[in-house]
Amino acid sequence: MNVKRAEFHSHTVLTDGELLGIELIRRAVALSHRAITVTDHVSLGNIEWVVRQEIADCELAKSWDILAIPGVEITHVPPDRLDEAVRAARRAGAQIVVVHGETISEPVAPGTNLRAVSNPDVDILAHPGLITAEEADLARANDVFLEISSRRAHAPANGHVARITEAAKATPVVNSDAHAPGDLLTQDEAVVIARGSGLSDRLVSVATGGSQDALLKRVGLL
Q1: 18, 106, 222 from 183: Cα distances, Å
Q2: pLDDT tens, residue by residue, 90-126
């Protein structure tokens, strides 16, 4: 069966990406994606501004055969203010809330992973680095998806993330964290990333298919 890809983590010129939102969406159309979520970096100061512009491009993309979804990646917010930022993102109209996890490549504040997976209104913990078993257990309990990333800076931790995710029976999802035109993944490439992380065959299927369906259902788009 030909599975069409859904992407839940990408960036535009609104933050540190290279493409306009509508251009990013158009490139996803060209790759036969069924859905793409625009998740530009936000903190408490820019949430409304970013989401408003994402919504405009996602509305414009309704002319094409793709679900374009406004979202956010809450980035480097102090853990004790993270819940506040999640609420602000939802109020602004973000349909998918991603939290920038404690990747091994950036100085993310310790405690970010724990606070994110403790909040059931967070959809995805992105590139969670050296996530602990306790954090993965909370992710499962609160239905927070754990990202397997194809981005070069974050991918070295994928094996650890996959092992901890599988042991906790949490739910993995493969994302591109696209910043540039060539970053978006085809479905076949996403499967390779999942297999390369060491996920079992069952969880490869979940990370590249079942979790995508679950996230779309969660926001009422499937």
Answers
A1: 11, 19, 25
A2: 999 999 999 999 999 999 999 999 999 999 999 999 9
Write the CB contacts of 96 (distance below 8 Å, at least 6 apart in sequence): 8, 37, 39, 69, 70, 71, 72, 123, 124, 215, 219
Q: Within the chain, what is the greatest distance between any pair of CA atoms? A: 45
> pTM of the entire structure?
0.98
Structure tokens at 56: 């405009």
Per-domain residue ranges of the chain: 6-218
Phi-psi sector, 36: left (phi>0), alpha (psi -120 to 50), beta: beta
Distance of CA 209 to the CA centre of its chain: 14
Q: Which of 155, 152, 37 is nearest to 89 (CA)?
A: 37
6-218: CATH architecture: Alpha-Beta Barrel (3.20)
What residue type is 38 in one-letter code? Answer: V
